[in-house]
Write a structure and sequence with these properties.
It holds the Pfam family Glyco_hydro_76. This is Glycoside hydrolase. GO terms for molecular function: hydrolase activity. The protein has a domain of 243 residues: Alpha/alpha barrel (Glycosyltransferase). 52% of the residues lie in helices and 4% in strands. The longest helix has 22 residues. The structure holds 2-acetamido-2-deoxy-beta-D-glucopyranose (5 copies). The site of one 2-acetamido-2-deoxy-beta-D-glucopyranose (NAG) has 3 residues, from helix 7.
Length: 406
Amino acid sequence: MKLSILIARFSYVWATQSLAYSVHGHHQDAGSVHGPSSDGSDAGQVAPRSSLLRPRQDFDTRAAAKAAIDALNNKFYSSTQAIWSPGDPWWLSGVALASVIDYMRKTGSSDYLDQVHDIIQVQRTQYAESGGDFRGQSTDDTGWWALAMIRMYDLTGNDTYLNISVEDEAHMYKSWTSSPCGGGIYVDVEAKTYKNAIANELYIKLAASLHNRIANDTEYLSRAETAWWWFQESGMIRNDSLINDGLASNSDGICYNNKLPVWTYNQGVILGALVELYQATASDTYLTAAYTIADAVLSSQTSPQLSKDGILTEGSCEPDEANGCNHDQQVFKGVFAYNLDELHNATPDGSEDHPYRSYLQQNAQSAYAYARGKATDLYDVSWVGPFQNSTIGKQASAVGLLVAAI
Ligand SMILES: *[C@@H]1O[C@H](CO)[C@@H](O)[C@H](O)[C@H]1NC(C)=O
Ligand SMILES: *[C@@H]1O[C@H](CO)[C@@H](O)[C@H](O)[C@H]1NC(C)=O
Ligand SMILES: *[C@@H]1O[C@H](CO)[C@@H](O)[C@H](O)[C@H]1NC(C)=O
Ligand SMILES: *[C@@H]1O[C@H](CO)[C@@H](O)[C@H](O)[C@H]1NC(C)=O
Ligand SMILES: *[C@@H]1O[C@H](CO)[C@@H](O)[C@H](O)[C@H]1NC(C)=O
């Protein structure tokens, strides 16, 4: 679908919402979106349909983000193991770490610096058999932690973090093979059975990020561009510009879209990757590709619906009341949100065709009003509510969104 059509469709949805707000806006409890509730109740409430919030100017996103990080720590952090929710998948802490670092980068606060330092010192000793420094058995796990190290380098200027991410790129690149599929990184380091979207998106973002931070580099840029050109033609991107989970291959090494779900994080990391490529090259083609994917998400109405009445939705699991999203899937939307913020920040001023900032703020305000346990500042998975309970994935997702909206 052409970009102009996507924008036209999206603008229509946007206009409808604004109208809905002006008609039904008086039903909103203004107090619930910019200050803590005093009733202490965590009773779940769902956003009224078609009366979602228009971004408010006085919503204190920074305070909401800080409260969510503090709740993440109170509820899930193990100081003895220096990780959140030790029983849950390791990569979720890598995602949470990146957002906590981003909170400090955006606000100038150093509130979590000691904690972040502890997490890195302890977690980099995992996988000692492959030399540690996040070089694990899954290239995507390595990618999440490596990108957190890039952010930590940006925050502190300390070479140690950049050097860890250099080692991580080398580790991931060892899983690139030209056959099958004509290229691509395997997600599983030992078994080498699956070339999927997430491992490759993280790789492109990491390699391009290294180029942008290492003087006179040509090799990382070349790898990142080669990986993107391959990705673009790999078959993982559907004809509506949404990205499926990964590739399957024939016995002759020809690969094709495996039709596994369209997850929001696979629409997200590629945005951040394309922003780094744009910064590396100043070539608009990368931004244009990113807009096409982002706009496909914001205007998505079917199979799966990723944005419903202007609120990001994990369409392949979130509407399923019986099974719902698993602990990994619960964090995906937050990843999309902070990568969309990176695209927003790379977009030249005055570009009204790309209202990503209002989208993020609208989502943040909906999550704050409806997905949050008001006594605890914990968040549930659906950003239109109700709140019932939280997990590391749900909470890290909300932190990703709230920090993105600052
Ligand atoms: C850089 O970070 C490393 C790892 O956290 C730390 O050991 C080292 O002291 C830091 N260096 C400086 C100059 O702060
Ligand atoms: C990081 O790597 C560079 C290049 O190899 C090296 O010069 C520098 O000393 C390293 N820094 C640290 C803190 O290990
Ligand atoms: C990068 O290249 C420039 C020009 O050739 C050179 O002056 C500079 O020292 C190089 N920097 C590094 C870190 O290699
Ligand atoms: C896009 O893909 C769908 C599902 O595979 C197919 O039904 C449809 O015809 C395709 N549309 C175009 C324009 O190729
Ligand atoms: C959390 O709430 C969901 C319903 O949204 C329920 O299925 C699940 O069992 C609850 N988990 C816990 C640990 O209470």
